[in-house]
Amino acid sequence: DHFGNRRARTVGELIQNQIRVGLSRMERVVRERMTTQDVEAITPQTLINIRPVVAAIKEFFGTSQLSQFMDQNNPLSGLTHKRRLNALGPGGLSRERAGLEVRDVHPSHYGRMCPIETPEGPNIGLIGSLSVYARVNPFGFIETP
C-alpha cells in the first residue's frame, strides 16, 4: 500500500504499449508480403498497411477499462478528471479482490494523493486524485516536494 513501492502507469505509457503492439502486427504483415510477392514489383505502398496500428489504438480507446469520456462540465471538473488515479484495470486490482487495507488511507498518501477526493460506493479508495503539487516522475513514481 506504500506509494514508494507503487508505479503509476501514465496514459502515454499505455498508448505507447498499444502502438508497439500495432507496429509488431504491421511488421508481421510486411514480412509475410515480402516473402509472397515478387521482389521486382514490391513498392512501399504495396507492403505497408497501417490498419493494424489504427486498430490497436481504436481498441485501446474503445474497449479499455481505463478509457472514458472526459468530464467537461466546467474547466475545474476537466482538470480534476485529468489528475485522476485509478487502481483498477489491467495490471491493477479488481473491486472484488480489494480489501479494506488497500482502500484505507496510508501515511505515504499524504502529499501525493488527496485523501478526501474519492468516489462513494464500490470504488471508494480505489480511485483518487493527485495532490496539488504531486507529479509523476519519469520512472512512474509519484513525487511530492
SSE blueprint and pairings:
Elements: H1 11-36, H2 44-47, H3 51-63, H4 75-82, E1 84-86, H5 100-103, E2 127-129, E3 135-136, E4 142-143
Antiparallel strand pairs: 1-2, 3-4
Helix pairs in contact: 1-3
Notes on the structure:
- One of its GO terms (cellular component) is DNA-directed RNA polymerase complex.
- One of its GO terms (biological process) is DNA-templated transcription.
- This is DNA-directed RNA polymerase.
- With 145 residues, the protein is mainly alpha-helical.
- It has five helices and four strands.
- The protein has helices spanning 11-36, 44-47, 51-63, 75-82, 100-103, and strands at residues 84-86, 127-129, 135-136, 142-143.
- The strands form two sheets. The protein has a two-stranded antiparallel sheet with strand order 1-2. The protein has a two-stranded antiparallel sheet with strand order 3-4.
- A hairpin with a 5-residue loop joins strand 3 and strand 4 (142-143).
- Helix 1 runs antiparallel to helix 3.
- The longest helix is centred in the first third of the chain and has 26 residues, at 11-36.
- The chain is elongated.
